Amino acid sequence: VVSGIAMPSGSDKLYTGSTDETVRAWDCQSGQ
To answer: How far is 25 from 7, CA to CA, in rounded Å?
Structure first.
């Protein structure tokens, strides 16, 4: 379950944090 989302200003990356204590980086251009 995603518990937080961050997208730094000027970045094309989206970061998500989950309740299982994982952090994932997503590329907004490719969706991966």
So the answer is: 10
